[in-house]
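cron nightly-structures :: item 1 of 1
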Amino acid sequence: MKRMKFLNGIGAMFALAVVALATTLTSCEKEDFNVNVEPINAQAEIRPTVLYVDENSTTDVTDAASISYSEGPTFTGNPGLSAKEVTVTASYNGITNTAKVSVPALQAGQYLTLSTTIILQKEAPAPVNAKAEIKPVVLYVADGVTTDVTDKAEIVFDPANGGVFEGAPELAATLSKITATYEGVSATISVNVPALAAGQSATMSPTIILQKQVGNARVEVKPVVLYMTKVAVIDVTASAEIVFDPANNGIFEGTPAIEATTSKVTATYNDIEGSVTVNVPALAAGQYTTLTPTILLVEQEEPVDPSEPIVSIEVEPSKTINVKGESDYLENQSDFWWYGSVTYTHKQGSKIVNKDIKTTDFDEISKIGGFINTLDQTYVENQLTKNEVPVYSHSRTIAFVDYTIIETIYTFYRVTETPDTRSTITKEVIATVTTEEYSTLFTLKHSQQIPGHGHAPAGHGHGYDHGHGHGTGNAGGGIVIPD
């Protein structure tokens, strides 16, 4: 049988201890008294003690143990007793051990009690290997909706162990890199795997948030085409033929940003053609603006009477002004990130800022007034709300509004030819109208410092109460949103 180790202070390796206690035998010898004495048979008895040793204590289980003998345990001579070797087997709680007991030869009348101790030691369990397991949670944020895509995302571990670390039996501290990919968006985080003793285990559940990529910058040119007749000014944008150069229908898409460029817009209506060159601004990824240049097409007049004056108009862009609009911010002093909304003033179209009408002629005033009213109707000013604005932990998200204003001067002339010759032409200014054409640029800046706040901007924070480890606690779990 397997020899057992006695742990509880017994020390050395042994299977049994045998203590033999022999009684002294007093013999009666025959004297010359002529008395006959019957010999007494020799006797021997084995009395085992069974001790059970576990991790914490030693217990006498003699009465509860199952004990068997190869022979005996009581021996009677006739009258003497010959020597013999006896095997004593004890079993308890699934553990068995044996002891060899040597019974010596005894003469008639001798009596011997033999005590033996059998130790049954519970075998120490084999050490359990330490184990750490990383089970990441992958969240995908797009258009204000957060979806758990852990089962759909591609997750790669480095080292390539599926996120499972086995000790032998202990586990040394180490580092694991996890890369998650979904819908073309990827992020990599590092997780500190803690040192674990044999038998310890830990499960870490870092959260990886994949933020849908910020959209490309976009500029859209939407011209307003006005047709000026002798009696009225008409908005003909919907019916005019409009050609863009470059031929992109007036839409500029960034990859993701847009560099500054120009767009030539040509409008044709009733065989009259006019064009304007639009300056397309440089935009960063995610920025958007709409440009609304005005193209004025003037119907040519041929007076019935050569001496009858006609009205002509000249258009001259005066200057371009960039104006900082209002700014707003969302502030987050917590460890978690969330969505908010900001409101801003969006301005678009041409606004009449100055008019100087010198003429007193009714027809001329009517024509100029129609132009002013039609152009002024293109100006729109609205309060817009930008929703789903992420506000990261311990930071501000600031919303900026910039207005690009193109100032344009429209000069109206009374053109008169002399009656005797058409080579003599006089031009007299009868009115000037100054407009400001607005376009609005909205910009968000994330992870800005909070004035007086003790924390520096903490990246993107935890969000959605994930990223906390289990078992021995979070060992390097975190949240990453790729920029």
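cron nightly-structures :: done
Residues 1-31, 458-483 have pLDDT under 50 and may be disordered.
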